[in-house]
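Thread: quick sanity check before group meeting

JM: Hey all, I'm pulling together slides for Thursday and realized we never actually wrote out the predicted structure for the chain we discussed last week. Dropping the sequence here so it's in one place. If anyone has concerns about the input, flag it before I start.
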Amino acid sequence: MPQLDRSVTEDGLVIELDEDLYPKDAIYGAAYIFIDRCYVKLDRPSQGRISVRLAPKPGSTVSLDDMAGEFENELLGQAWRRQIVEENRQLIEQVTTQALSGAAGPPGLDDLLAMDIDEETAFEDPLGIAMSWEEKYKKKSEKK
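JM (edit): ok, ran it. Output follows.
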């Protein structure tokens, strides 16, 4: 059985796809792209096959062959995007986690009170930013 069948009917175009080649969510994604231009109907004619019926909306000037070509191209694009997401899922989750944890904002008062600050660490200045304006910008001519 071929992996992709295309037939023209009186009310539009029917494309029958093999689910082993095109994942279901890629088919749904491609069909969603077309709902503004066509009426879309998905069906399962047999196990492992999905048919997509595209019927142009009134006023559409696109030929059925062009529509079929656009749908097949969009289907390939959706399948490719899905594969990229699957291959990079861990990276996407890490970046999203870091972005959301950074969006939490500064620590709250309870967090600051819970910090372990003793006399030794209270006045540490590892970045050297706790100097007065006078110390930082004193005149260089005071050399002896």
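AS: nice. Residues 64-87 form the longest helix (24 residues). Strands lie at 4-9, 12-18, 38-43, 49-56.
JM: adding both to the slides.
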